[in-house]
Amino acid sequence: MRVYMKNLQKGWKGGVITPFFVSMLVPIMVGIWPSFKLQAASFAELLQSPIYQALLGQMGLMDITTWQGVFYMYVGVTLEWAVIFLAILIPARIVAGEVDKNTLDVTLSYPIPRWRYLLEKFMVYLTYSLLYPAFVYIMAVVGTNSLGETMDMTVLGHSMIGFWLWLFALGALSLLCGTLFLESNRALSASGMLIMTQYVMTRLGGLGDLSFLKDLTVFNYLSTGAILQNGGMILNELAVVVGVGVVALAAALYVFQTRELAY
Amino acid sequence: MTEEIVLEVSHLTKIYGREMTVAGRTFGRRVVGARDVSFTVRRGEIFGFLGPNGAGKTTTMRAILDYLHIQEGSVTVFGMDHHRDALEIRERIGYIPGDLALYGNFTGEELIEYFDGFRPVDREFLKELRSVFRADLSLNVKSLSSGNRQQVGLMLALASKPDFLILDEPTSGLDPLMAASAHRLLKELKAEGKTIFLSSHDLAEVQAVCDRIGIIKEGRMILVEEVENLVSKFLQNVRVSFVSEVPDLKTLEVIESVISAEAEDENTLVLKVKEDINELLKVLTGYEIDRLSIEDATLEEIFLQYYQ
């Protein structure tokens, strides 16, 4: 676990500070909630528009006249975008970034299997990714108590696990792009296209006859809205997301282990 | 020196890219990295690998390390297949790439400790390395000069005192004093039975430290020879001053071993002769010679000759 431990230690600043800043959205929401609450009914009416419903997906089904509804809608959308950016930008560059800097040549001359090296580096990403839902969860508990509002913390916990599993599955797809293309620009383009296409398909799937598009995307499974409506984890959806992640990760490890490093 | 073979490269061929012809039009491009390259490196020797940029040195080295998939041929290190037994081989080798890059946010100390987990460092030898190299290991690698980074790279490659070192331009960027220290270290390692395979553009370095050299040109190995033999046998500079009649340059140039012939002045010719000088001497006996000098060419002259 040397690669994991060393990279965890080296990446702690960005790894901890960024999720902390993202989670600061919760205290901001806590601050504005008392005044927002008074106008929530008129916003709720606005959100009934089919366009908003399509854009927000299942977040649009939230009752934003309640603290829980507003929390899920805003935090859910923010975390969704955090997932998109993180999954596109970080795993794709785990290998490609090293190829760009030419640091792999020395490292791989040591007796460590390539797949294990990659797995340990991906685990660093997964560990720091865990901090996004973890910090948001802690802030939500503190904020909800300070407001005197109610929120089902078990469901919230399951939603946060859902976000982390998205980061795992989409991150594994992005990692696969990195091992296939080996060069940052191409790897980022491929992973961006793969993930953004899924996001757009999910949103288009909210419009009329295009609902089949949603079924083809990771974003359609374990969404915050669905977990909230279900009142907890949806096991068959969990299997889909974990399955996509495991297959993509196994493919990435296999590709990196066996491919030639011609650059 | 024992004859135990540490590295055996046999008919190695690596071609980059693909070409495809559709309806008479060719798409893609094939570039020869190495073609039918064969040579061996014996235990306890320093083998210099020479060639201009793009000749195939790095391709061959990266193929040995199993970074590249070769189309034909085989590579064995310590008798093990370079692909199938890659991990076992890596336990016994040290490598420094030509275009060295290290993790910029690690200090030299951290890098040594980090890689110690993969291939244990020889602590006693590390002390010696610290006394030889002057790079400050407490600084982040990104803040070091290229010469100091190269020193850190050399320390990493050598720290575990591996049985076989693959060094791609190991003294690139080092000042002459540091390069001389590195040469001494390599010779010490050789004396201990370690095997070194190095590429270099510094021919004085090659002449100073290598036992044998291989010259690669356009992906093909064109010569493998002991350095000593190469210098004495392969190219000689002949300077002849004639008393009166000077032979026609064209007469001399047709001799197979004469590579070039130039008139220095109206009575003196300077010739470069490859391998057998006897045929030239036979021709010269037909003329009245005032002075004749024969000198071994430098490795640089030999090298340039092979590249023309």
Gist of the model:
The complex is a heterodimer of chains A (263) and B (308). Chain A is built from 13 helices and no strands.
The CATH C-level class name of the largest domain in chain B? Alpha Beta
Main interface: chain pair and counts: A-B, 17 and 32 residues
Overall geometric form of chain A: globular
The structural class of chain A is mainly alpha
Unreliable stretches of chain A (pLDDT < 50, length at least 5) are none
Beta strand count of chain A? 0
Query: What is the helix content of chain B?
Result: 25-40%
Secondary structure: number of strands of chain B:
16
Helix content of chain A: over 70%
Count the domains of chain B. Answer: 2
* Main beta sheet of chain A: none
Produce the secondary structure layout.
The complex is a heterodimer of chains A (263) and B (308).
Chain A: H1 2-10, H2 12-23, H3 25-46, H4 50-56, H5 67-89, H6 91-101, H7 104-107, H8 114-147, H9 153-181, H10 184-204, H11 211-215, H12 224-230, H13 235-258
Chain B: E1 5-16, E2 19-22, E3 25-28, E4 31-42, E5 46-50, H1 57-64, E6 72-77, E7 80-81, H2 86-90, E8 93-96, H3 108-116, H4 123-132, H5 146-158, E9 164-168, H6 176-191, E10 195-199, H7 203-209, E11 212-217, E12 220-226, H8 227-234, E13 235-242, H9 249-253, E14 258-263, E15 268-274, H10 278-284, E16 289-296, H11 299-307
Parallel strand pairs in B: 5-10, 5-11, 8-9, 9-10
Antiparallel strand pairs in B: 1-4, 1-6, 2-3, 6-7, 11-12, 13-15, 13-16, 14-15
